[in-house]
Design a protein that fits this description.
two-stranded antiparallel ribbon, 7 helices, 178 residues, 2 strands, mainly alpha
């Protein structure tokens, strides 16, 4: 199903990508979201979460970036990545890993809430530190800003001249090539 979600995101981007970023209000939401992502990334780098996760995902013992996580992404979140200048991988770089996982971590900038929030047991002690509390705060802001942007994009797309089904492919009850 992720192939269909990627295809839908690319079609929406071709039709509406530039309009989305230039739309009153939406451009600001994209900027706010991107800034919140950068804050999360900065704190994750400070506490070495991204580095630790990349090593775990690519070298083992296993990770939260397992094959199948990509199925949680829908076309709107993938569209946001395209608007923010990220290419959507279509081929798995890390065998057994998420489609979006590269050798140095996630190739996407706008990530699913699980991918932003999850910390494995080996990183749980981090939460007991002041930087861990900061990480919780900035990642919560990122998720909130992402939710606001997604909600606004869905509303904006629904208000466009043609009918667009914004449900994930899995909820549409359509069998694509099956």
């Amino acid at each position: 199903m992720i192939k269909e979600e990627i295809d839908r995101a690319k079609r929406l981007y071709m039709h509406y990508g530039e309009a989305l970023i230039n739309q009153d209000g939406l451009g600001v939401l994209f900027e706010v979201y991107l800034n919140s992502i950068r804050k999360t990334q900065k704190v994750m780098k400070q506490v070495r979460v991204a580095e630790t996760c990349s090593v775990c995902a690519c070298e083992g013992p296993g990770s939260c970036c397992f094959e199948g996580v990509e199925e949680w992404y829908d076309h709107v979140l993938l569209l946001i990545n395209l608007v923010l200048g990220r290419q959507i991988p279509e081929f798995r770089e890390v065998p057994g890993g998420c489609l979006f996982l590269g050798s140095s971590g996630c190739k996407l900038i706008a990530r699913h809430s699980f991918c932003v929030n999850y910390l494995c047991p080996s990183l749980k002690d981090l939460m007991k530190t002041p930087l861990g509390e900061t990480l919780l705060s900035v990642s919560g802001d990122e998720l909130f800003c992402g939710w606001e942007l997604e909600k606004s994009i869905r509303r904006w797309l629904q208000n466009q001249g043609r009918e667009i089904d914004l449900r994930p492919v899995a909820e549409m009850g359509i069998a694509y090539g099956h």
